[in-house]
Amino acid sequence: MSEQTQSVLSIRGAAKFFPGVKALQDVDFDLQSGEIHALLGENGAGKSTLIKVITGVHPRDAGSVTLSGREIHPKHPGDAQALGISTVYQEVNLVPTLSVAENLMLERQTLKFGFIAWKKTESDAKAALDTLGLDIDVNRPLGSYSVAIQQLIAIARAVALDARVLILDEPTASLDGEEIKTLFRIMGELRAKGLGIIFVTHFLDQVYAITDRITVLRNGRLVGTFVTRDLPQIDLINHMLGRELAEVSSHRHLDESGFTGKGRQIQIKNLGKKRVLEPVSLDLSGGEIVGLAGLLGSGRTELSELIFGATKADSGLVFLDGEPVMLRSPRHAIRAGFGLCPEDRKQDGIVAELSVRENIMLALQGRRGWLRPIARAEQQKTADEMIKALGIATPDSEKPVGQLSGGNQQKVILARWLVSKPIFLILDEPTRGIDVGAHADIIKLIKELCDEGLALLVASSELDEIVAFADRVAVMRDREKVSELTGADITQDKIIAAIAQ
Amino acid sequence: MKINERYYPLLATLAVLVLLYGYGIVEHRAFSDTYVLGALLTDNAFLIITAVGMTFVILSGGIDLSVGSMIAFVGVLMAELVTGFGLHPLIAVVISMAVGTAFGAFMGLIIAKFDIQPFIITLAGMFFLRGMCFLINLDSVPIDHPFVSDFGGFKIPLPGRGWISAAALLMLITVIAGVVIAHYTRFGRNVYAIGGDRQSAELLGIPVHGTIIRVYTLSGFFSALAGVVFAFYTASAYPLAAVGVELDAIAAVVIGGTLLTGGMGFVVGTFFGGIIMGVIQTLIAFDGSLNSWWTKIMIGALLFGFIVLQRLITRSFSGMRAGAT
């Protein structure tokens, strides 16, 4: 197969550095016309950075991007669009208050004597939708249609712009089964017309349903490009998660736990929410670490948020020592002694402008209620103790948390929960974006916490990490708990097999 | 066939206008005379001209608080040019409108380039222009010139006792021009797009900065024109003229059915909105027993109603960003 001549988009040695992070390194990528090419990888693998380099959101730091044999340097998405690279984002980037026709024809309206000829403009819009087999009233505001239709309209606009390359960034995340079928039919038709389509998703069944080839990225590097039908799913997952050749052996079993007292019992029964998570049941007890494994989008984060009340469940209950816990909001969960260190700590966890001390005191204060303030001296004492105990690298307790490194921010969040003496702590990706030193510190901390009788649920996409500390592992797939592994069954191989089965 | 939801606020505006006007005709015989209509068009001409410019600003998701001061500033500047420098009023009009438009463009440039809240910049513009008025002139001065009296004397008779004045005619031309710019030019549609969702507009390849600068230039132009009409209409200039007109203009735009957060609305609605405010004033004057502050109470109540109506319409939209509402 003479790949070079057929490639519509060809990337060689692409690299992108951000301060302290090599987001993309030496990545090659080829897109042929008339193919649907999946771009896969876990969070932080470099998918979105690669797309941003292609569309000109970020200038590349090295390498070349060639479109139909000509090297391009798009400066912004508009540039890329003009060159023939159109992108449809998960969050529809159209104007909800304008009519469908206008959204399709903005800046391309037919002019007569300098004024817009509406009849012609509308019929052009209709024609653009006809190519996708979409028959709707183009004069109604875009916002009055469902997200699925809006998604299709965005694709229609991209196609109408004479795109040669179409990038679909997680287009199916908010669509239901029927809508996905329609989208796939249209993708198939566009492929037949010779468009090259890059399809970013985390639904592996969709990858196998529609794509021709797969490119996998991990940690900003290219793992490889594969023909979809020749790549078994288990191999794909292996590529995505990546595995150290030597199996980590620092396995830890329940009997090694330093905790000997009677642990509190936490029972999660059929906790679920429509379109978010199928009902999940899981038991934990004090002094135990349960790992939550699964690919991105498998429901790890969703389960954490349901247990913490950040998302309201519409089925199921959580029991603490046999008593049902009311979980209508995080406030209730905190009162019950639950804690959550979220995945995206910048957005959900820390308050960057507040000092280390104030961040540490947040949960405890929240639990006591705002009418009973904690004395300043007591705050100071607790904060200083925590900074020492967790080894938070900060000159003093009054430094704004936003100025600390990622690992230290994570420790501040941990400290916040520890001072509120929780019964049950959920850590979602506790080691994401943290340097190696802090990484080991945090794992050590997790184990120590458990020895003190805390029940821990740790969600992570790093399998070696889960294998290293978990007493039990719950495996999630497609927003469902598919398996629970204990004892000697906790190996990377078994976890991958459970994800892939 | 279902009526397009974009027309709901405009239909509500029309319904309010018909109800109020109808009430006036039923209650007061003289209300049906074209004299009332002519007076409405003339008395509210400067307000509606300002409000047409304000419509573009609000459609783009911004606000322009400087328009009231602009009206006074243009009047004072013109008076100075005519009486102090002995220029012909038409030349004074050209110069002051050029200054006013340039000032609008300057504010737009700062808003776009430095990405600053329009509220703050135009607030600064409001103080600055009001202060400039006093720098030129401390007192009310008449603008005495045959051309100005001719402007005041110009009349197109209407059937009945009414007539259309030069101010009303200029206002009607402005409204038509506004409708054409808003609905039949790419610039106009880009204003809607930016007000609807600025981030998306940028990704759709719309020149956001250029459009925003042009929006404030346009508002500067229209409010300067309103200043000219106001000065000719009163045949005088006063540094404290048109205080608070920016708020009346915003009210006219919102009562006219334009979404205060931008992206949806009609210039012709603003015309009706301005007329509604005039009708309320006239009704209260006709009644005779009511305090004139009832005008404000009525307008306040109407604003509440329209803002809630807008909220109900946009809330039914899917995919509307939190930031866009």
TrEMBL record, chain A:
<protein>
    <submittedName>
        <fullName>Sugar ABC transporter ATP-binding protein</fullName>
    </submittedName>
</protein>
<dbReference type="InterPro" id="IPR003593">
    <property type="entry name" value="AAA+_ATPase"/>
</dbReference>
<dbReference type="GO" id="GO:0016887">
    <property type="term" value="F:ATP hydrolysis activity"/>
</dbReference>
<dbReference type="InterPro" id="IPR017871">
    <property type="entry name" value="ABC_transporter-like_CS"/>
</dbReference>
<keyword id="KW-0547">Nucleotide-binding</keyword>
<dbReference type="InterPro" id="IPR050107">
    <property type="entry name" value="ABC_carbohydrate_import_ATPase"/>
</dbReference>
<keyword id="KW-0762">Sugar transport</keyword>
<keyword id="KW-0067">ATP-binding</keyword>
<dbReference type="InterPro" id="IPR027417">
    <property type="entry name" value="P-loop_NTPase"/>
</dbReference>
<keyword id="KW-0813">Transport</keyword>
<dbReference type="Pfam" id="PF00005">
    <property type="entry name" value="ABC_tran"/>
</dbReference>
<feature type="domain" description="ABC transporter">
    <location>
        <begin position="252"/>
        <end position="499"/>
    </location>
</feature>
<dbReference type="GO" id="GO:0005524">
    <property type="term" value="F:ATP binding"/>
</dbReference>
<feature type="domain" description="ABC transporter">
    <location>
        <begin position="9"/>
        <end position="244"/>
    </location>
</feature>
<dbReference type="GO" id="GO:0005886">
    <property type="term" value="C:plasma membrane"/>
</dbReference>
<keyword id="KW-0677">Repeat</keyword>
<keyword id="KW-0472">Membrane</keyword>
<keyword id="KW-1278">Translocase</keyword>
<keyword id="KW-1003">Cell membrane</keyword>
<dbReference type="InterPro" id="IPR003439">
    <property type="entry name" value="ABC_transporter-like_ATP-bd"/>
</dbReference>
From TrEMBL, chain B:
<feature type="transmembrane region" description="Helical">
    <location>
        <begin position="163"/>
        <end position="184"/>
    </location>
</feature>
<keyword id="KW-1133">Transmembrane helix</keyword>
<dbReference type="GO" id="GO:0022857">
    <property type="term" value="F:transmembrane transporter activity"/>
</dbReference>
<feature type="transmembrane region" description="Helical">
    <location>
        <begin position="266"/>
        <end position="286"/>
    </location>
</feature>
<feature type="transmembrane region" description="Helical">
    <location>
        <begin position="65"/>
        <end position="85"/>
    </location>
</feature>
<feature type="transmembrane region" description="Helical">
    <location>
        <begin position="119"/>
        <end position="143"/>
    </location>
</feature>
<feature type="transmembrane region" description="Helical">
    <location>
        <begin position="292"/>
        <end position="313"/>
    </location>
</feature>
<keyword id="KW-1003">Cell membrane</keyword>
<feature type="transmembrane region" description="Helical">
    <location>
        <begin position="215"/>
        <end position="234"/>
    </location>
</feature>
<keyword id="KW-0472">Membrane</keyword>
<dbReference type="GO" id="GO:0005886">
    <property type="term" value="C:plasma membrane"/>
</dbReference>
<feature type="transmembrane region" description="Helical">
    <location>
        <begin position="34"/>
        <end position="58"/>
    </location>
</feature>
<dbReference type="Pfam" id="PF02653">
    <property type="entry name" value="BPD_transp_2"/>
</dbReference>
<protein>
    <submittedName>
        <fullName>ABC transporter permease</fullName>
    </submittedName>
</protein>
<feature type="transmembrane region" description="Helical">
    <location>
        <begin position="91"/>
        <end position="112"/>
    </location>
</feature>
<dbReference type="InterPro" id="IPR001851">
    <property type="entry name" value="ABC_transp_permease"/>
</dbReference>
<keyword id="KW-0812">Transmembrane</keyword>
